[in-house]
Write a structure and sequence with these properties.
The complex is a heterodimer of chains A (about 210) and B (about 220). Chain A starts with 13 loop residues before the first helix and ends in a 12-residue tail after the last helix. In chain A, the strands form 2 sheets. A two-stranded parallel sheet of chain A has the order 1-4. Chain A has a two-stranded parallel ribbon with strand order 2-3. Chain A has about 210 residues and is of the alpha/beta class. Chain A is about 45% helix and about 10% strand. By secondary structure, chain B is α+β, with helices and mostly antiparallel strands. Chain B has a 5-stranded antiparallel beta sheet. In chain B, helix 1 runs parallel beside helix 4 and helix 2 crosses helix 4. The chains are: A alpha/beta (about 210), B alpha+beta (about 220). Chains A and B meet through helix 1, helix 2, helix 7, helix 8 and strand 3 of A and helix 1, helix 2, helix 4, helix 5 and helix 6 of B. Strand 3 of chain A pairs parallel with strand 4 of chain B, so a sheet runs across the interface. Chain B: GO terms for molecular function: nitrile hydratase activity; transition metal ion binding. Chain B: It comes from Xanthobacter dioxanivorans.
């Protein structure tokens, strides 16, 4: 019930965590008492983003694009509609654009002004995506930022950074790793990481060549 | 507004700290901040652009030393107070001093999933042709508006090329100020890294932004 039970991932000191817990509870109490918010609705929003709307959705889009050239074409023409055929869409993914990584081009997505991110396919953004360190530097020195993720690209590979300054939301389609030619959709989707769909990671086969 | 939120090109924040596992929240209060922010937006008193503007108005030192959900919390409180929906005293005490004022809508539990699935529509029917076509050279305006804008400082007064015409979209600058949607054509504009950062820039780098038509002018 209290902030004392929060552990494992907090970068804050315990005292500041407890203070935020109290302040947010105070606000919510007032909002509920005044009839502005419905506590059951709040719980459903949280449940949606904890259990249903996350990067496994995007991974299925990527795996399908790898397996079906027609679906990849659909993504190129109208990513919002193509993604909707898998049942994903809505809030913060109304206008989707798919960015294909190739042998010559690597795409990376950022929102330098806030935290714009394709929620229906990737869920809520990771803490680093919202951080000043990422937002400040990835537009000017993406190779240094990729190095923070352990990613090194060939020196002549073109890097395209996409700053999400309006309501267009981007999904990177990473390159399919070699050695997966016989894999099915579920196996491929399991390989696709969230970071590879933002552009700060590559898809690799565990134990295999990168 | 030239606030601390406009981070592109700043230095000194140190390395990015990856977190490979998907962890949407790091504490209980972060869950509640997200849920209350979305539920309050659904009241229909303000729009998403106004919400962003409220976060950007935090004093720079406070913005840069707050975690992202703290920024969301502070932005939400300032918006609620500015709209007269709650008082600072109520927020600080957690005790409501009286009934709420009427709001256009309250998000009930049965409407949550349909609302998330529907999203919001930011595109409008165009009432004029687009001024620029894909491939056209353009220049972003040099501007320093005191209000919310989505043209980052690092991309002002720069030469670029129209990468794509995205459609006719609600104009964030006007919408944030409560001046209505005032839709405009929206473009993806690509800049060479050297145009943004100088001759020392990585020659393999290009950066795109989304720019409304009024951010753009023909090249000099």
């Amino acid at each position: 019930m209290s902030g004392d039970h929060e552990h494992g991932h907090d970068h804050d000191e315990g005292s500041s965590l407890s203070e935020m817990e109290l302040r947010v509870r105070a606000l919510e109490t007032v909002l509920v008492e005044k009839g502005y918010v419905d506590p059951a609705a709040l719980d459903l929003i949280i449940e949606s983003y904890e259990t249903r709307i996350g990067p496994r959705n995007g991974a299925r889009v990527v795996a399908k694009a790898w397996l079906e050239p027609d679906y990849m074409d659909f993504l190129r023409r109208d990513a919002s509609a193509a993604i909707a055929t898998l049942g994903y869409g809505g809030r913060q993914g109304e206008t989707m654009v798919a960015l294909e990584n190739t042998d010559s081009v690597h795409n990376v997505v950022v929102c330098t002004l806030c935290s714009c991110y394709p929620w229906p396919v990737l869920g809520l953004p990771p803490a680093w995506y919202k951080s000043a360190a990422y937002r400040s530097r990835v537009v000017s020195d993406p190779r240094a930022v990729l190095a923070d993720f352990g990613v090194t690209l060939p020196v002549d590979k073109k890097i395209r950074v996409w700053d999400s300054t309006a309501e267009v939301r981007y999904l990177v389609i990473p390159q399919r790793p070699a050695g997966t030619e016989a894999w099915d959709l579920a196996a491929l989707a399991a390989l696709v990481t969230r970071d590879s769909m933002i552009g700060t990671g590559l898809v690799t086969v565990p134990g295999g060549a990168a | 507004m030239n606030g601390a939120h406009d981070l592109g090109g700043m230095e000194g924040f140190g390395p990015v700290v990856p977190e490979p596992v998907h962890i949407p929240f790091h504490s209980t209060w972060e869950r509640r901040v997200l849920a209350n922010t979305l539920a309050c937006m659904a009241m229909g008193v303000w729009n998403i652009d106004a919400m962003r503007a409220s976060r950007e108005k935090l004093p720079p030192a406070e913005y840069l030393t707050s975690s992202y959900f703290e920024i969301w919390f502070k932005g939400l409180v300032s918006r609620l107070v500015a709209e007269g929906l709650v008082s600072r005293a109520e927020v600080e005490s957690g005790i409501s001093q009286g009934p709420g004022r009427p709001v256009p809508s309250v998000l009930t539990a049965e409407r949550v999933l349909p609302a998330l699935a529907a999203g919001a529509q930011y595109t409008r029917e165009p009432d004029r042709p687009a001024r620029f076509a894909a491939g056209a050279p353009v220049r972003t305006r040099q501007m320093n508006p005191s209000h919310h804008t989505r043209l980052p400082r690092y991309a002002r007064g720069k030469a670029g090329v129209i990468e794509a015409v995205r459609g006719f979209f609600v104009f964030a600058d006007a919408n944030a100020q409560g001046l209505g949607p005032q839709p405009q054509w929206l473009y993806t504009v690509r800049f060479d890294g050297r145009e943004l950062w100088g001759s020392e820039s990585d020659p393999t780098l290009s950066v795109t932004i989304e720019a409304w038509e009024s951010y753009l002018e023909p090249p000099i």
